[in-house]
Predict the structure.
Amino acid sequence: MKTLTGVGSTPLAGVGTARWHRPEADLTLPDRPDPSAVDADVELARFVDARDAARAGIREARDRAAERVGEEEAAVFEAHEQFLDDPELVGDIDDAIGEGTPAEHAVSDRFAAAIEQFEGLDGPMAERADDLRDVRDRLLRALLNADSDAPADLDGPADLADLPNGTVLLAERLTPSDTAELDPESIAGIVTVAGGRTAHAAIIARSLSIPAVVGVGDALREIESRTDLLVDGTDGRVVVDPDADARATAATDAASPVPERVSTVDGTSIEVAANVGSEAEIAPAAERGADGIGLFRTEFLFYDRETPPTEAEQYAAVTAALSAFPDDRVVVRTLDVGGDKQVPYLDLSDESNPFLGRHGIRLSLDAHRALFETQLR
């Protein structure tokens, strides 16, 4: 057996068959023409259409992620949509097109510069470069008429939502959009050449309980499709052609929920409460033995609608949480929107640094006082 090492991202183990995901195969740019041969008006119109298509795709991805992994994880796609309106990114692309650069080359050039800038930062900020890659690839697919859902062979782009059972997905890196499409029932693991534990794709993989090892490096490229792999997301190991003992160990390492309350050896009780971002997450939390809800994020009630929820709708949602945990604590967070969490019908301001701006309780005690009073009732 050969063992590769990386960074364990999801502390679970899985065994399956390798399949490479290479979405870049259908994003090859055509040769760059002479600027004098480029019709700037046509290219600007193409870029506008691509932004509209990318925006629609991002919103679909956000809705899908919110349903499967919760509103907090899905919020990354709201940040992706903001990239499409970033005045520096969009302005520079418009300028490049006006100077005779085709839309796809202008997008590729400008995003490459932004990605390089992020990767030059320290810590988790460097991993935000993958979010830029996600948005760039959406724009390029629209401009190049590339179908990201087209079925393909093992080494090409694929429909990630419909992979064979027992697939261990290999990739240079995965974007948040890629990861949100995966079906945890069919995916035995994820292994990537690049990436880190705090990247949004890794966070979504953990939310989906998919074993994952990231940042394995160039050695991963030597692994061919159809190779049997063991993915150990706890120790950050990838075992090539694991033997029977290794497979058995991986099977026994799978953690099972403990429904009883837990305590330390000296008898100190430890509360293990759920983090809930939608009504759909309440029942699974109760079934897996959560000791109540430590954070009930009520903003999910305000998304994907044209008007705020009524008092009766909010009452029903909170009652559902209380009913699932009649003897436990349920901590309800009142409406936390604004900044990076936009709700169109609330006419929230667009701030250059939303994390330091007016959102959450600041708005509830001022502009959203009526909504706040309804929620408190």
